[in-house]
Model the fold of this input.
Amino acid sequence: MVADKKGGLPKFTIKHRGFFTFNEVMDTIKSFFADNFYDSVKYEGYKYKIPSPAGAEYEIIIDASKKVNEYVKFGIRLFLRVFDMREVEIVQDGKKITTNEGKFHLEITSSRELDWQKRFEGYGVFQPFISWLDEFFRKNILKYKVDDYWDDKHAADVIGLTKAVQNALGQEVV
Amino acid sequence: MERDVITSKKINFAGVFDPQGLYDVMKSWASDKGYAFVELSHSESLKSEGKFIEVILYPVFKNFSDYAKGVFKIHVQMKKVKDITVKQDDKKLKMKEGTVTISIIVFIETDYEARWESKPIFYVLRTIAHKYFLSPFIDRNETVLRKDLALLESNIKSFLNLQKFRK
Done:
C-alpha cells in the first residue's frame, strides 16, 4: 500500500441468523469505541420499524473517528441492519433467559486520513510547493511509518471491533 | 498491479470436528508463516438442519518485496453443524458434527503499489524487467507459496482426521 492521503481496509461483513442479545451487541460497540479512545461517535442514522408479525427492524449507522495525532486520523463507519427481531425465552445451561432471535447484518467500513487538519494544502503562491512537500514527506519519509505502523494499528482496531461483535453475538467461530 | 493465479485447492470433510479448532489451525499457520490475516466476511445462521457458518479470509497476504506479494483467498463453509457429545478417556466432550468445504486460491501480485503504471513507458519497462530480470525471483516466490499451501493443507487435513478418531 502506498502512503496515500486516504486509505483504509476492505469492507468487513458480519452476518448472523439465530439467537443474540441486541442490547449486548450495542453495548459492546459503545464500550469498544470508549475503550479505544474514539473521540467522536455519531449516530448518523437510526431507524426503527414498528414490529410486524415477523418482528422488529432496525437500521443504524454509526460514524466514529479518532484523532491519533496532529497528522493521522482513524475512522470507522458501521452500517447495522437487524430484521425480524423477536424477543424469545430459551433455556441455556438449565437456566431460562430472555434473548432475541432474528437476522443481523453488519458492515464495517474503515478509513485512515493523513493531514486531516489540511495544513499541507497550502494557499496562495506557496500552494504548489507545500503540496509537493506533503507528497515528498508522505511518500519518502513517512511511507513505512504509515504502512507498517499506522495502517497496522488501524487494522488492529477494526479487527478488534469485529471480534468483539462476534463474541457478543455468540458466534461459533471467533 | 498484475495478479497471476498460481494454484488452487479444495478440501472436503464430513464428520466430527471442532469449528473453533479448525479456525485456529488456519490462524496459527498464518502467524507462523508471516501472513497478515483479514476476515472479509463472516456469517452464521441457525437452520433446521444445523448451523451454517461461512468465513471468507481475504486477503491473507505476505509481502516478498516492494514488487511482489503472495495472496491467499480462503473460503470456509461449514454446513449442517450440530452439537454432539463424544467420549474420550472416559470424559464427555462437547463437539460438533457437520460438513466442511475449504477452497483456497493462491495468487501472486506484482507491482502491487502500482509504481510502474504511472506512464506508458514505465509499463513497457516493467514488462521487460518482469520477463527477463525478475522472473527468477518471482519463480522463487511461487515456490514459497506452493510450500506454504502444502503446509496449510496438511495442517488442516491432519487436524480434521485427528478429530475422526474421537467418535
